[in-house]
Amino acid sequence: MPQPNQVPPALTQLTEDEKMLREAAKDFAESQIRPRVQAMDEAAELDSELVTQFFDMGLMGIEIPETYRGAGGSFFMSIVAIEQISRVDASTGVFMDVQNTLVNNAFLNWASDDIRERYLPQLATEKVGAYCLSEAGSGSDAFALKTTASKEGGDYILNGSKMWITNAREADIFLVFATVDPGAGYKGITAFIVERDFEGFSVSKKENKLGIRASSTCEISLDNCRVPEENVLGEVGKGYKVAMDTLNEGRIGIGAQMVGIAQGAMDAALKYTQERKQFGKNIADFQGVRFQLAKMATNIETARLLVYNSARLKENGKSFLKEAAMAKYHASEVAENVSSLAIDLFGGYGYVKEYPVEKYYRDAKIGKIYEGTSNMQLNTISKLLLE
Ligand SMILES: Cc1cc2nc3c(=O)[nH]c(=O)nc-3n(C[C@H](O)[C@H](O)[C@H](O)COP(=O)(O)OP(=O)(O)OC[C@H]3O[C@@H](n4cnc5c(N)ncnc54)[C@H](O)[C@@H]3O)c2cc1C
């Protein structure tokens, strides 16, 4: 029999640091984000005061080492924080998710010392980042991108446009994927760090969306945009690896966002069903309703375990691609189903904006689309099963 201290901890057992961050993120979400959720959703805009608070709380640079003014935390800590923020509001959830799991991770894994010194302190303390891969004609087939980068002296000149870029309205630092050789296929793709005020760069149309409305999603134009060669992230021609590596990790973040949405809808349904009376009783006293609540909670737990397991595998340096794809695929199904059931349990009140659950349902839908659609997750899972 293994001794208790040799038994691996349960997936939901957190370290003291993880618990502390989870509680801090939860308190912040309840006290600062919750009162602003409806207004931000209606205005389709993040409250700028909140943006500053996210930096002040250390939530925008969780894994950035303290030497670069970050919080010096772990990937799992980012996941726990994204879940707690998304439990209250998925727009602010994806705001910090893109910064931590895509942009900061790309810098941490691929940047030279010079780039780390120039950009990591800014990303940890004041500057929002955005991740620019998709284009109008290339989504699932991301490496069919058309944006070009041609060398001119010590600079690259970028031309093209990007679509669907999260955080584009708030961001100052953009990670842009372009090809240095359109004939070379994915082997021409290179990652460039572009600053908002670089010549030839502009943020254009902002999308008017179904859900995560306060999160900005914009088009980006690169019109002879001049980028110094020192701003290539990783090697020229290795941008596809930067993109694949970051998206593999990023998917776990989206899984956490979806678990947060599902838990937020569940919490609202638990409270409401114990208050709403029909036939002289709380509706939570009806077995039909109790069983619905039990199934919702069970499904959320399965999604959370998949998300936590893939995050732990990644953190332990183990292979996690299949598990991350499963986590994102399943968590987005669960978020959609649980938030839909929450509307059912609220009856007519679930259908109106005065109550919180219709927003969870709208917000859940994006989980099946970004950072690889559900079909693309199934492609990855089946490929790894059958290889
Ligand atoms: C709100 C929002 C925020 C976003 N944020 C960002 C961001 O910050 N940065 C960024 O770079 N991108 C971002 N995206 C883009 C997002 O990643 C893409 O929309 C997504 O990858 C899907 O691409 P697509 O829209 O071109 O759909 P398509 O690729 O055209 O897919 C359409 C349908 O075809 C299916 N399909 C396609 N190929 C296959 C296949 N081989 N097998 C089976 N089915 C297939 C898909 O599953 C989907 O159902 C965002 C999108 C949205 C809506």
Which helices and strands appear, and what pairs or packs with what?
Blueprint: H1 16-33, H2 37-43, H3 48-56, H4 75-88, H5 90-110, H6 113-125, E1 129-132, E2 148-152, E3 155-166, E4 173-179, E5 189-195, E6 201-206, E7 217-228, E8 232-233, H7 239-273, E9 277-278, E10 281-282, H8 287-315, H9 321-346, H10 357-364, H11 374-386
Parallel strand pairs: 1-4
Antiparallel strand pairs: 2-3, 3-7, 4-5, 5-8, 6-7, 9-10
The structure holds flavin-adenine dinucleotide.
Flavin-adenine dinucleotide binds at residues 98, 131-134, 139-140, 164-166, 209, 217, 366, 369-371, 373, 375-376, 379.
Domain Acyl-CoA dehydrogenase/oxidase C-terminal: 237-384
InterPro entries: Acyl-CoA_DH_CS, Acyl-CoA_Oxase/DH_mid-dom, Acyl-CoA_Oxase/DH_mid-dom_sf, AcylCo_DH-like_C, AcylCo_DH/oxidase_C, AcylCoA_DH/ox_N, AcylCoA_DH/ox_N_sf, AcylCoA_DH/oxidase_NM_dom_sf
EC number: 1.3.8.5
Structure, described:
The structure is a single chain. By secondary structure, this protein is of the alpha+beta class. The protein has 3 domains: 4-128, Acyl-CoA dehydrogenase/oxidase, N-terminal domain (Butyryl-Coa Dehydrogenase, subunit A, domain 1, Orthogonal Bundle); 130-237, Butyryl-CoA Dehydrogenase, subunit A, domain 2 (Beta Barrel); 241-386, Butyryl-CoA Dehydrogenase, subunit A, domain 3. The protein contains 11 helices and 10 strands. The chain has helices at 16-33, 37-43, 48-56, 75-88, 90-110, 113-125, 239-273, 287-315, 321-346, 357-364, 374-386; strands at residues 129-132, 148-152, 155-166, 173-179, 189-195, 201-206, 217-228, 232-233, 277-278, 281-282. The two termini are 36 Å apart. The model has no long low-confidence stretch (mean pLDDT 97). Keywords: Acetylation, FAD, Fatty acid metabolism, Flavoprotein, Lipid metabolism, Oxidoreductase, Phosphoprotein, Transit peptide. It comes from Fodinibius sediminis. Belongs to the acyl-CoA dehydrogenase family.
